[in-house]
Amino acid sequence: DWTPDSFVETTVAALREKLGDDKVVLGLSGGVDSSVAAVLLHQAIGKNLHCIFVDNGLLRKDEFESVLESYKHMGLNIKGVDAKQRFYDALSGLSDPEKKRKAIGRVFIEVFDDEAHQVQDVKWLGQGTIYPDVIESVSVKGPSATIKSHHNVGGLPDFMKLKVVEPLNTLFKDEVRRVGKTLKIDDNILGRHPFPGPGLAIRILGEITPEKVAILQEADAIYINNLRSAGVYDKVWQAGAIYLPVQSVGVMGDERTYENVVCLRAVESLDGMTADWCHLPYDLLAKISNEIINNVKGINRVVYDISSKPPATIEWE
Ligand code: XMP
Question: Under which pathway is this protein filed (predicted)?
């Protein structure tokens, strides 16, 4: 019978056998899969696992620092890389969603390749691929999909020539979470909502600027903190704020304002393939709206998305 404990035991032993004294490089995202893969590999080969966590400047407020801290706390050998400016430069002038995704994927590969080169004699690339990613080759839109499509371009980055080790490629998401619990990974990581690889870049409609990122981070943090303190966060499958490229008129004291709109999105789902909008309590929505408008400069209107998937998607881009 499959249990998380027996999975950990046999997987760690098999990884030890397979990897010996070899070095492995792995990109951490802050998400559940890459974190569980990293902790398994760490149990098997310790300091020979070199983790890389890239700050693409598109993460949630304070996310990079707090997640990096959690990883260090877990004993992982991890390097945090500040690549914000490289991503902003690549995104400058782009407003088409697919062009933004491609630019982010390309820069991620460049940054990761630079970092992987700094690990002497590395032989393996670790990945948090899970079973659904393996079987569903078309609809995966994560960084791994970007890496795969790169195969066709020719001139592979060097880290792509590494042998691949994927300790979770037989597991479903709920099994990965159970393994993560057995491994005592922080709830703050295991319980997180899914977050897209391109991050806030696809939640800022149109062109990305560091200023818009900062505004959205503030609004999103107010939203998420309120979901947490109301005890709603764990009941929602995914939530986030979207920055709309629309200005509307408002009043603040005696002043007329003409500022942007933030949309709040929260959905219930099992796998992200279909989703229903969450019926959040009106008084919670009212509190969040007031807090955002009173505290986030540049936002004077908040709306709530009441569209389900299909025909809408979870993200707006
Ligand atoms: P949609 O918007 O297609 O989203 O309904 C379904 C799920 O996929 C996530 N998503 C992405 N994840 N890279 C990712 O790693 C992407 O480009 C991407 N686009 C959407 C989305 O957050 C939701 O969980």
Answer: Purine metabolism; GMP biosynthesis; GMP from XMP (L-Gln route): step 1/1
78-82 β-sheet, strand order: 78-82, 49-55, 23-28, 122-126, 163-165
- Residue from 270, 315, 316, 317 to probe ligand 1 pocket by mutation (most atoms less than 8 Å from CB): 315
**Which string of DSSP letters, residue by residue, matches 175-200?**
HHHHHHHHTT--HHHHTPPP--TTGG
If pLDDT is split at 50, 70 and 90, which confidence band does 157 have? confident
Q: Which is the closest atom of ligand 1 to the Cα of 142?
A: 15
**pTM, rounded to two decimals:** 0.91
Residues with CB under 6 A from ligand 1: 101, 141-142, 194, 196-198, 238, 272, 309, 313-315
**Domain coordinates of the chain in residue numbers?**
4-190, 203-304
- Complex ipTM more than 0.90, yes or no: yes
CATH top class, domain 203-304:
alpha beta
